[in-house]
Amino acid sequence: MDEGHNTQMKQKPELRGQVLEGPSDIAEVGKDWDDLFERARDATSFLSRAWAETFMSEKRIRGTPLLVVVWAGPKLAALLPLSIRSFCGIRVAEPIGTTKPSYLGLLADLHYAGAIQVVADVWIREKVAHAFYDKYLSSLDETTNELLAELANHGFTYKLGFRRICPWIRLNRSFEDYLQKTKSGKRRKKLRYQERQVFNAGDVAVVRYAGTDITSEVIARIAAIQKESWMKRRGAAVLGQPFYQKLLIEMAKAGLGHVWLMTKDGDDVAFAYTFVSHKKLHLRWIAFKLKYESSLSFGKILTMRMIRDACEDQIVSFDLGFGDSEWKQFWATDSRDVERVVAGRGVLGYFAVLWYGATWWLAEQKWLFSLYSRFKRWGRIRQQGR
Prior knowledge:
disordered N terminus, 13-stranded mixed β-sheet, globular, alpha+beta, about 375 residues, 14 helices, 13 strands, about 40% helix, about 30% strand
């Protein structure tokens, strides 16, 4: 065997897959998980170890945690974090973290050809579950969409439904270029006028915290803002809860959390908490105190400052999160679709596909969904009151 062929073999080690169960086995791959996340340049922050481990440690998953992993020599080539639960004898696997809106799926280094196929092979060999269910499949997530194609090749039937639009901003340019290409001259002039109004209204400042600079004190301050914002009326002022406090701190420790905090005359006015990884920014929480609801656009100017900073940091995309509200449409240049997907194999897996398909149809009936949303919001408000 010649030297060139030996070199090629070293570059393409044999892929081997396995299932890891139990806290100790999962903990052992911690550093390898972090290494894979760094190499998987298209991965969102929601596929980081910090995100998944917090949900596991705080018991915010429905079922038993399990990892499907693929090794290429000593390195991880792919990792699928799942929780397994059962109903009516049907085992369903879903990505860890689906209890909160996020972009979830398979973490993989695409330099290792065949890694995604091995994930599907392991699923069949180890009988991981009858069905795979993901509430938050992004149309931009090529890796997880490829996994679905592989599952289909292995005899799975799958169904997509309940589509939502998530706006985002295409950046990787200067802030002035972004404004020039997306806003009219009249609109640009008005934005600059509104910015001057805000910063001339008193001692107004915007401070940015990143990574370990985000302390428990910073988290407490942004939680207080959220509690005095419109989110309280919707039962969505959650950042004061222990789970969210831990989640925000753990994501910050992992270097993924970034906070923008706006103050006026020493009082906290507005904040935004984002995740940043691989030159991609995801806006996760944003709010301003209702007492500052006036002709001065504090929230708008904070968002503009964030976009300006993102441009200076050479961020390539700024995701505005779930929902297609008017303020997001104002800033966005593009949008992604986020759908629910269920894939099942065998008789029980096929029943799971039928079941989820039926529930999605019911959810798309506006009157019924409105009633459900009101009941859920009422429950959240009661829980916060307690």
